[in-house]
Amino acid sequence: MNSKRHILLIASRNQGKAQEVADLLNELSLSIQILTMADFPHLAEVEETGSTFEENAALKAVYAAKETGLITLGDDSGLEVDSLNGQPGVYSSRFAGEPTDDQRNNS
Hints:
By secondary structure, the protein is of the alpha/beta class. The chain is 32% helix and 15% strand. The protein has a three-stranded parallel beta sheet with strand order 2-1-3. Helix 1 (15-27) links the parallel strand 1 (6-10) and strand 2 (32-36). The N and C termini lie far apart (50 Å).
């Protein structure tokens, strides 16, 4: 195996998400350095205008890849509650309004 270390940018500032990816790659014995958007503080937050998690993940990944030139993985997540007809979905983090607040969202 090539000993050269490769870089993967996670299009998120969430260190927990980055650690999850790093753990998965380590299990596969892949030597990949994980960076996050926190490593690029000059880059703007991506407005999540997609109507699906996939669309929002793509928006973030494409933006970060274009701005940094790095191979980039984007993700988006949230809750889809059956009794709420799939809500809040892509609006999970902003369910209780802005600024985002996990405790208010849960209430």
